[in-house]
Amino acid sequence: MADVTIEAVSAVVGQIYEAAYDQERWLDAVNGLLDLFGGSRSCIVRVSPETLDAVASDPDPELVSQEGVEAMLRDPLAAASAALPVGTVHRWPLMSDETAFRRRELWQDWMRPRDMYHGLACNLLASNGAHWLLDIHRGARQDAFGAHDIDLLQRIVPHVIRAGQIGRRLENMSALASAFSHLPFGVFLVSGHQHIAQMNEAAEAILARPDGPLGLRDGTIVAASVRDTQELQRLVVDACSLRDGVMPGVGGTMLVPSDQKRSDLTRLVLSVAPFVDARAYGLASERCAVIMVTEVARNIPAGFETHLRGLFGLTPAEARLATTLASGRSLSEAAAASSITVKTSRTYLERIFAKTRTRQQSELVALLKSTEPLSGRR
Hints:
single chain, Beta-Lactamase, Arc Repressor Mutant, subunit A, five-stranded antiparallel sheet
């Protein structure tokens, strides 16, 4: 291989870290490694007991087909590659196995026709029975990889591994943010002054209600009453405070509006808790609190019967009776609503007790209300 310049290596490392922040850029990084090492093919491949997926410089659907995967997994090379230590570069085929390898199906039918004569390989990750392998090949008319090639790739591999770690972390954060945005209850991330840093769609809907007990003023959350606003501020300050310079406060829970006479307003339960320290330039700048908001349900939500049937294995008739009881009606009222006799309703109730492991009606109602789906509180 011709002398490699520092600029060329730096460019490839730059491509690798660009891929950490944009998964679609891994193909650029794979192609950059191909050019740097003067190879014929290069790829990052995920090998599991059932599948083989690859980001490859030369995409080959046949090679990753079921037939190709089975041929790969039948060959001892699969087990040997899986056993390679993560982060250590190896030349393949191994000299001790090269003659035997050239006689086997994998080489004769799959690798030789694709001019995959010489290779460098390194495991990047092993997880849940699968392993991720960086593979660079040269053809029959090219020189085999030498010690200087192994040394260069060994210097680059830690960057590939680190970029993979960054990428996985960002993917997890993205998935978490997506789940956060679609939660069926309101979530606010606020500073110690109740200034909103982030909120999900449900939280936006709560603030947009013209008759709601919460509102927005100059970017901060306020309640309909001064007293409730002050209490919310106290909980947020507590959640954002330090205990002995280290431990965060605990926050708390409140009901708004707290004034029982304000029956015209929707009632909300606010749970305030410490969240994270916001950071700037790697240094803590301000502690944040999370406010989770659920609506006090006045009515049983649609689909509650189906919910109970799946949760406790109730029959349709039992679920109908349980739903009516959960709405606050007496057993006789529930029987009338279901067009059954009180005697029959008692029989159903005994069956419901057995399936829910409760002993009395008040305990049953408390249990049923506690299992109410969050989506019903929107």
